[in-house]
Amino acid sequence: MRVLAIESSCDESAVAVLDEERGLLSHELYSQVDLHRLYGGVVPELASRDHVQRLLPLVRQALASAATTTAQLSAVAYTAGPGLVGALLTGAALGRSLAYALGVPAVAVHHLEGHLLAPLLEDRAPPFPHLALLVSGGHTMLVVVRGLGQYEILGETRDDAAGEAFDKTAKLLGLPYPGGPELARLAEQGRSGVFDFPRPMLDRAGFEFSFSGLKTAVMLAVRAQPADKPMDDSRRADIARGVQDAIVETLAGKTARALDATGIRHLVVAGGVGANRALRTALQAAVAKRGGEIYFPRPEFCTDNAAMIAVAGLARLKAGSAARDLAIESRAQWPLTSLSQ
Ligand code: KG4
Ligand code: ZN
Prior knowledge:
Number of domains: 2
Bound molecules: 5'-O-[(R)-(carboxyoxy)(hydroxy)phosphoryl]adenosine, zinc ion
CATH architecture of the largest domain: 2-Layer Sandwich
Order of helices and strands: EEEHHEHEHEEEHHHHEHEHH
Number of helices: 11
Strand content: 15-25%
CATH superfamily of the largest domain: ATPase, nucleotide binding domain
């Protein structure tokens, strides 16, 4: 079986071709980051319009670099949600129509299931059951993954996602958009402990997160700077380090607690924030201490991409969950726990 997959849930237009036996044959991505930079965040309507222009050329490119003709495709998978509804609709309409025209099944993929299954793209794939820390711009959750569609959410964020906390505090520090990777870069030059920001919910039992207080703490630190004395680079780096330390320590602390509570020894780190080096190091240490194994997708498969949608799409196709009607599915909200095997 060979699947073409389309991702358009936010600000990346992406297409990939995955073969059941030969693995990933191609993956193409166009990031709209330059388009949204001017506004300091993703503008949904602009994102949708840009997807419309980018997706078809990306489909052609992905097929060409996979040396695949449309006649060789067994199915078309597309991200059906959750995400920006207009952006989703562009990929969903294209994916569903293409499948109809080719007379092959269409598979509506859950974006977070894509993130969760991204480690299966790597040579060393995690066994089931495993614990997954899913940390992206829109989600922060600890999930026990027992198999395809068997997801038990141990805890989620009550407010901002970890990626959102990186992005919003980066904005307060005047860093260019998108802030997360910029803040991480600056944090490497800063000193630990100069700014001691709160570790939200770390002292509380359970697996829930809350990152919105961090924004306020950083805002106060920025405001404490006298107006006639602009903040210098080293102070900005110390704040960035303080923010990163607080987020990383909270995520790693709760993850360690979940490993202990479940007795699971295999940890998967998924989602855009999984590209953060300090987080990787902290989680690696927590897992090593418990004699476990850690699995990361490579950084380009941590952030949004179509390869992960192809993996989830193929798994769903094999499990018999291809669409039975011609509906173009696009859902802004779609709880992960509503999925079944
Ligand atoms: O998974 P993703 O690409 O998109 C969503 O589905 O949300 O995640 C994007 C998020 C953004 O908030 C971005 O700032 C964050 O991941 N991110 C990072 C790093 N790279 C991406 N945050 C911290 N450090 C990084 N190196
Ligand atoms: Zn994502």
